[in-house]
Structures are given as structure tokens and as C-alpha cells.
Amino acid sequence: MVASLVMCGVIVGIATLSLMAGTMQVSVADVLRALNGQAEGIIHTVVVEWRLPRAIAAIVFGAGLGVSGAIFQSLTKNPLGSPDIIGFSSGSYTGALLVLLGTGSISFIAVASGAIVGGIGTAILVYVLAFRGGSKGFRLIIVGIAISAMLSSVNSILLLRGEAGAAFTAAAWGIGSLNEVSREQVTPASIMVIVIIATAMLQSRPLREMELGDDTARAHGVSVEKSRILLMATAVALTAIPTAVMGPATFVALAAPQMAKRVAGASRSLFPAAAMGALLLLGADFIAQRLIRGTILPVGAVTLSLGGLYLVWLLFMQARRKPL
Amino acid sequence: MVVSGRSVQQEGQEQARTAGLLILLFLLGGGVVISLMVGAKPLSAATVWNALTAFDGSYDHTAVQEARVPRTILSLVVGGALGLSGALIQAFTRNPLADPGILGVNAGAAFAVAAGIGLFSVSTISGYMWFAFGGALLATVAVYIISGGAGRMSPAPVQITLAGVALGAVLSGITAVFRMMNSEAFSAMLEWSVGSLARRSLSDLVPVLPFILVGVVLTLALSPALNAVALGDDRAASMGVNIQRTRLISLLGVTLLAGGATAIAGPIGFIGLMVPHSVRWVTGPDQRWIFVYSIVAAPLLLLVSDIIGRVLMPPAEIPVGIITAFLGAPVLIVLIRRKKASGL
């Protein structure tokens, strides 16, 4: 509880900073006035029109990814069972590429639909192929690798055959970025994500029961297959929507639930994972905007490097603790 | 009676192995001929023969000598190196799912090459080579250390695979960022990073070949020790095998073979997974035979994949790395779906 509150406090802190700082510095007082709708002119534009959607997107999408990862990891009973690993990202990338390069359309709705269809299709395919009287974590991961390998090949063909400029733009989408995100996209997407997170929170009891094993859950009155499908759909949607808007922000879904567990202890609730996800994506975006002077790195680059290092460290510590 | 019965059986197996090897060599010969004939413009066997024996400077003859012969030789070398490195990784990690691609070795090489292009403006294949080697070595060692291989016990196959996957994901992600920050590097890398045998010359092979040959020799010399390791670390130690040294030499061998192959052709996945796996059905668990078979069968598979890539979508070519991914990924899925992955 305390840890969750602290995380929320840090989120508010970073969010305020990211509203204040930038090419144009805005004071706290001006930020507050802008948020109340009392500022006008350039301050209103910069704070409310430019920086606020970005901060909200980072917080909401991060929370969505965190919850999504927590659900995936519980269902697969495997700390690596995240959408990144089971091929969701490559699938949504393929979907987006097909739309971008195949139809030449750059409309947001078209690309987003392509990404969602591609991601969900891949997740289902991986799940079905890994299913054999229940889906074991390790099998899920290996099937995910195999499918990802095929999809990355398809992606490469698409990029190689596409016209150079379009290919570069399309490849840029492959690394999640909040740079191009606009208020018109963030508002509906955020509302959807928040609603789905709320749905997921209501499902957290069956989720915890299923962590203890399907039989235990059944004994406690959980209809396992129904809950599993519902939770799976929730988790997929929570990755799909943010991915459609900003591209894949790799490893947030993977790292957030585990870091939350470290900070807040084992919790029955999905809230710490949501808070940690929001914190990670917001923090990563804050760093991405400021790391290299003059360039705004895609936030996906930062989450990838930080999350990846965390993952490697995690495996290293695990291997040292219990040499199998 | 029992003893002589077994020896007859062993003799039978020996004959089957030799016969299988001869069949593979025959198929490989056929593959080489087809590889010389097939391409943007199909040529007859007679034309190919004339191009090799009585070169007349015509367009067709030049195509054979300048493009198809080097490409075919590269397939043989790269394929052999990949197959053998896969067999070696599978043997010393006792992990039937190991493959230079799955264990992040390819990703390490690609990462280093991207860094070379992006940071040091390297632009030649021989320039890529050193980076590919360095990256392959770092990735192999890192995966082994992350999964706990530096300890006294051998790490579990699952640990090694997970570490490889994790590191591979990180490295290929950072590679993507490198590419994004430099659009020239982007084009150069994109072509290299799918794994292709096109547009390479024999002079690209020369600097890499010695390393691959050393890798082959090391691996073959290691096969008795690896046969012992297959029985478990304790048994191997009691048979007088130095486990730590075996592992170190294995790591070196994998790096030389996989790094060399990747330096020439870019990351080509799944050959190292599929070939040792399949040949084991014929050879049984003896590493010496697995290694020899892999050296012959892997180039065959790579040649066939490359030929498929040339004829599937004419006049465009599909890079061989994409074909092997499409052949290999289903194999991997079938393997993992079986109750028990084939033991070593």
C-alpha cells in the first residue's frame, strides 16, 4: 500500500516536471493555471496541447502495459511470459507494415487496425500452437521465438521491397515513440485503456487463484477456461491499444510486474503493476526527451535498453541463487 | 553369443552411417550443380561446364564464374560452419534446442556490426567481420555467464535458452535503435541483417576462412570429450575429462564457427538447430558422427534454401536467411510440441 502510494507520488512528480521542462520552461504556478484553464496563449498551447497529452499517454499506456504483463506472467506462470516475448510486438509490427507499405496509407486508424489485427492474430497463433493439454510457459516462449523469427523475416522483406523513404518511416514505427502522438489519438485510446484496466482489476481474484494451479482454482469455484480467455483478451487489448498508438514500447510489460513485486511485495491486486508500468514509461519518455541534446529518442529505445538490462540482471541473479 | 550379436548390430549401424554419409555427399554434389545452373537466368549444365573449363568471356560464363561459383562456395563454407556450430552448442550445453540464433550469438554479431557501421563507418564485408566476431564472442560468453555457466555446475538447458532469448532481444533492439539514428547505416544494415549469400566475392571469404577452419579442427578434436560430457559432468570428470577446459574450448569453437559464418552472410537462423537434430536420427548419439554429418548436411540445406530463394519470386531474390527462418521455425515448433525434445 505504502509502496503504491510512493509510486503514485513519483509519477505525479515526474509528470509535473515533464509539463514544466522543455525547450520552453514553464513555472509550477503557470502549469497549474494552464491545467485549470486559466492560462492563455503560448503557455496554454505548450502545456495543455503539447505536453499534457504526451504525459497522459505515457502514464495510461504504461499502466496498461504493466497490467497486461502482470496478467500474461500469471497465466503462463513464467516471468518471461510477456507480450514482447510471445510475438505480439512482431505481429503488430507486421500488421502495421503491411498497411504502411502495402496500401501506402498513413492514416492512423488504418495503421492502428493493422497493428491490432496483426498482434492479436499472432498472440492467438502462438497460444494455439503452444497449447497441448494446457500451455506450458517454456513451450509458449519457444513457439513465440519461432513465430517471431518468421514474422521478422516477413518484416525484413517488406522493408527491403518497400521504397526507401517509406521503409525508413515504417521502421521508425517499429520502435515505440510518443513523439508523433496527438491529443485526438490519446483521448479515445486512454479512455479505452482505463476502462479495460478496471475490468482487469475485477478479474484479479480468479487470476490469483489460477496462479496456484488450475485445480486449486477450480476447487475454489473459478471457471478456469472462461477466466483464462477473458483475462487473455484483456491482456492482449491492453498491449494492442498502446502499441497501435505509439508502436511497441518493449519490455515495459515484462519488467513492470516484476519490479512492482520487488517494490510492493507480493500483492493480490494488479494496482502495483499498473503504477510501476506508468512510472516506467513516463520516466523512460522523460529520459528519452533529454538524453541526447537536440534529438528526441524514441521512448521504445529507452524502455528496451533499461528493461533489457533489468531482465539480464534478473536472470543472472536467478542463476546465481539456485544453480540448477 | 550376446557379445557377438551386439557387434554385428554395431557393424550394421556403422555401415548405415557410412552409406548415409555417401548419400548426403552425393546430394550435396547435386545441390552444387543445381546451384550453378539456377539463377536470374537459368543455364544448362553444358553452359556451366563450358564456363568452368573453357571460359569465353560471354555474359553467361561471367555470371557463372563471377557470381554463382563464389556464391556456391560461400554456401558450402557458411552452411558447414553453421551446422557444426549448432551441433557443438547442442553438445556442450546438453540442450537439444540450442542454436546460434536462439542463443543470441547472431544478435550479438549483428549488434556489433551495427555499432561498427554506425560509430566507425565500417562499410566492407571484411570490415564487418571483426565486429561480427567480437559480437559473437561477447554474446556467447555473456549468455553463458548470465545463465550461471561460470559456476561449478552446468547450467540447465532452460536457463541457457532463456538467457539467450533475453540477451538476443536486448541486442537486436539496440541494433534497431542504431539503425534508426543513421539512415545510411539503415540501408546497409537492413540487407546484411536478413542473412544473404548474394553479392559476396571469394575475397570476402579469405580473411574468415582460417578462423572457421580452426573452429572445425577444435570441434572435431573435442568430440571424445563431448561424448563423455553427454553422460553428465560427474561421469565425464571420472573419465578424466577436464570439464572447464572442454567448455572453454567449446565456447571458442562456437564463436569461431558462428561468428565467421555470420560475418560473411549475416545472421542466418535455424540451420544450426535443424541439421544436428535431424542427423541424430541416423547417427545416434556419437558426437563424432554428428559433427561429420552436420558438416555435410548443413551446406546441403543452406544450398537448397538459397536455390529456393532464387527461384521463388523471379526476378527478385529472397535472401536465404528468410527462407531458413520459414523452414526452421515450423521445425522448432514441432520439436517443442513433442513430449520430449530429442535427447542427445
Give an overview of the whole structure.
Chain A has 324 residues and is mainly alpha-helical. Chain A has a single domain, classed as Orthogonal Bundle (ABC transporter involved in vitamin B12 uptake, BtuC). In chain A, α1 runs antiparallel to α3 and α12 packs across α13. The mean pLDDT of chain A is 82. The mean pLDDT of chain B is 81. Chain B is globular, with a radius of gyration of 21 Å. Chain B is built from 14 helices and no strands. Chain B has 344 residues and is mainly alpha-helical. Chain B has a single domain, classed as ABC transporter involved in vitamin B12 uptake, BtuC. The longest helix of chain B is centred in the first third of the chain and has 36 residues. Chains A and B meet through α6, α7 and α14 of A and α5, α6, α7 and α14 of B.
Task: Produce a short descriptive summary.
The complex is a heterodimer of chains A (324) and B (344). Chain A is mainly alpha-helical and 324 residues long.
